[in-house]
Write the structure tokens for this entry.
Amino acid sequence: MKTKPYRAAIIGLGRIGFTLQYDRLREQPASHTAAFGGNRRFRLAGGYDADPARIAEWSFANPGAKAYTSLGEMLGDGRWDVIAVAVDEDEHWAVMRKVLPYRPRLVVLEKPVAPNLEACRKIERLAEKYGVPVQVNHERRFSRDYIEVRRWIEDGRFGGLRTVKGEIYSNIPAWMKGDRKHAHGTILVDGTHLVDIVRFLTGGKTVLKKAREDLPDSAGNTGGITAVGHSGGASLALFFGYTTAHFTFELDLVFENARVRIGNGVLELWESRESPYYEGFYSLIRDKKVKPFRKSGYFAGMVKNCAEFLDGKSELGSPLSDGIRAVAVMEKLARKSG
């Protein structure tokens, strides 16, 4: 018996909502439009954006879906199975307070949940009030390479996990001048991704105990932040920003008997073997058979999990509670570095 597809809509038709599907170098699908539209379990039936030009472009590319010029019109046009909220994080609370009373069966909320913990808690309380489950799009949780590394940690094949180093280098300052009580800059935009995937891999609470600011600029921004702490029993060091001319997202995990590097375009396994360099010692030798997956399935995996959740076959892989924990860690980091 053929299963009726779930009815899906997207709010916010910018990069992550729509146009990243035109990036020829990215693994596709790379947008909510492409991911939901390309999964047979869903029928992409609606889209809304406050920008009329975006609506027109999206409508042209998706003739089978309805482009709404009013958010209220879209929300009131029958019950939606899933609504993806892909607006800027500063708008998350304003949009979610309109969406949740309509009780869609599921909301997919872009990361970070909100720019501060106060707004996160408002979203959480309203979602609980209306009984709406929320999936946060921390898509690395659904990527085949990170899932594989998590399996290595859980089965203990390389011994205990000793240390984790996480790095995000970009041309965006780590912390932007503003309210010290809230996290802005790289530590919010990409830092929540980093903390979330560290929590996902280690399976434990992530605590940052100390932080140091580097590279202040004349505008009052902080170029880089280094933080140390622990996660799931392993020592942890995180680096954010540092105003580089390149973008790097990477983790370096040291085990009792191995080392793993994983990140954007990177998956390396180095195992402890009898050393070819020194008598009586062991050295790390790279296993060249371990390489990045050609298709990690990160975005497609998130949408697949949504379908399985709506089917009643699976829990959400990236629930709202975990997304809020990532923001909480980043907000505490902003305060420690102040």
